[in-house]
Design brief:
The protein is an alpha/beta fold. About 25% of the residues lie in helices and about 30% in strands. The chain is globular and about 55 Å long.
Length: about 180
């Protein structure tokens, strides 16, 4: 199925989504990488993230224009997932997957393919930089977007995990060979 969602996201927005669904997102999207996550853990968040979509991304920005905004690998940020979701984040966007357990009954993980930095740059418009002191790529950026995507629901709020399912299918096929 294909869905068009508007932030801030609610429990109702995400509970109908299943792994393999396609999502386009409109509204506010925040970015955060390693330093922003560590800052939030230590100091707290400078903004409300209730209902937010948080993009694992270190954008390249010049003169308030996004030049590139490809996803970064989410697995290295997984140690922060529980804390980030407890702040009310409803969607994490990234690449490469992330453990599914913390998302159960709370949020979704949207896979945005690597190599889509130029596409994302066209879809994101700078609103604010909430942690300037962390540097461009590591700051907590706030963007507006219309129909950002396509993204694939890789982890849903019901326990569905596309990465786990693909691994299971591959293992089953390999046993047949």
């Amino acid at each position: 199925m294909e869905y068009r969602l508007q932030t801030p996201l609610s429990d109702n927005d995400i509970k109908c989504l299943r792994s393999e669904d396609v999502v386009y997102l409109s509204g506010t999207v925040y970015t955060a990488r390693d330093k922003a996550h560590a800052y939030i853990r230590k100091e707290g968040t400078p903004i409300s993230l209730e209902g937010a979509a948080l993009y694992h991304c270190g954008p390249l920005i010049q003169n308030h224009r996004v030049l590139s905004a490809g996803p970064t690998t989410s697995s290295r940020l997984s140690r922060y997932t529980e804390e980030i979701l407890s702040l009310g984040v409803k969607a994490i966007i990234g690449k490469g997957g992330i453990p599914a357990e913390p998302f159960k009954d709370r949020a979704i993980y949207l896979a945005y393919p690597g190599g889509c930095g130029a596409l994302a740059a066209c879809q994101l418009h700078v609103c604010n930089n909430h942690l300037v002191k962390l540097g461009m790529a590591e700051a907590l950026w706030e963007f507006q977007t219309t129909d950002m995507g396509p993204m694939i629901v890789a982890v849903d709020s019901c326990g569905g995990d596309l990465y786990r399912e693909v691994r299971r299918r591959v293992q089953a096929k390999l046993r047949q060979v």
